[in-house]
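Justification of computing resources. Each target in the renewal requires a structure prediction run like the one illustrated here; the chain below, 526 residues long, is used simply to show the kind of job we budget for.
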Amino acid sequence: MELKSIFKVSAVALALVLVGCGGDINITPTVNDNSTVTNPPTNGGDNGGDENPCGSYESGSDTVQGTFDSSNNICSYTANFVSAAKPLTTDVTLEADIVHYFSSTLSVGQDCNTTQGCTIEADGPTLTVEAGATVVFDNPASRVQINRGANIEAVGTLAKPITFTSANTIEALDSVGAGPSPQDWGGVIINGFGITDQCSDAERAAGSCNAESEGASSFYGGNNNEDDSGTLRFVKIDYAGGLPAGADVGNDLNSLFLNSVGSGTEIDYISIYAGYDDGVELFGGAVNLKHVVVTDTQDDSLDIDAGWQGKVQYLLIKHGTVVNAAGETLNMGNGGFEADGRKGSSTAEAPASAPHIANVTVITTDELSARDGDPSIAMKLDDFINATFYNMVLKQTSGTQSWCVNYSGDAADEIVTDRTAVKTSVAACALLAEVGKEAVATASGSTTVTGWFTNDGVSEVVNGSDTVLANNGFSTSADVTITPTDMTTVDSFFEATDFIGAVSPSDTSSDWYKWAKAAFDNANDE
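Resulting structure tokens:
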């Protein structure tokens, strides 16, 4: 899939609305109302005039505000407005139907290591992003960073999603003219007060839990798995996964990094495209997710670690290729899941990751991923993971150098004892397990990967050539007749379904179908 000049957005299109910036070459504006466009501010700086629609806040007797370019419908914000070193400490709103360009990190709330004499404001500032806004960055280290105590309210709609993406998707900001690439910017980080096994029980009790984030240093963790960090709904995150200067190769930022985020936070209708590290990474906490699509992300699509206790329903994952700004074709996709139980030390208060994940479709390739040369795999199980997967469809058509299920010795006993389990699912894999690792044996007993996958007596392992997907490539085929688990019997978070996989074979009109189709077609647009 090529990112050619046709991908770029003209000034006319910008004056309409910029949404859907993921993908290769197609952008379709969804709103034609440009009535909010006004004359640019007279002062030309970060302090704007009365008609300037850019985000602003009061600082002493001054109003600090982005600079508005009315000809391109772009609000620009320098490090004088916000940066990692100068976070927002008051509420700020980014208006709808405008491109908001940040030349530094959009940090909200004070980042604080409580052992260094600082104090976290529990009821901190809120960043509000209105439906239809496009928020862009041009530096691999620049990111959205919601620190502990702060909130983000980014609530889009199906017709007017919110997009966080590379500045190179915008013609007026693309100085080279090559278009966007994975790793153009950092991604979205939310740090919460949830429980992570990276802290001890004593640290949590003393209020001194300060786990340090990967990629770019920030702090998270606490003792409240019901913590509320805000809302992400109908949000797209494209071309993220940047590597900050000085960071070790491979220590990239993730598209959506949820660090100890609590269940009071709402994550619903998310689309992630062409990230260079993980699509969604979860370190502890208990945040839940619904209606998530992750396409053509280089590393793992959903990475679980550090004792995460949340739930997921409706998850579509696809591995594939992108063509970057240099014209190189990159194979994207390592693990559909990387499921780790522990990162630190488990305790009764901070047990191993034990999520419930339902209605999933994972579509892999037979390629090796661009960054590390690891194979495209549907599930990677490690570090005493205790997850349960329900109503799942795995699809791998060819398997000469990849396979569907990978496990480490630290997950073997969980497989043998069914502490990590599969229910009412189907695997249509050319190669289910790595050659030589089909059998699993521990002191607790033995099984095979096939035996583990079908242990419930309902799940099936079929051939990679068997039809499990509909003609559209992402819905479950009507030929699949496995009766799904009624997820309402597991937890009230879940909805009852009459199908397995991410999208029903009979659905062509729901918001979820339209959201999944748009993301899937975008990733396949060649």
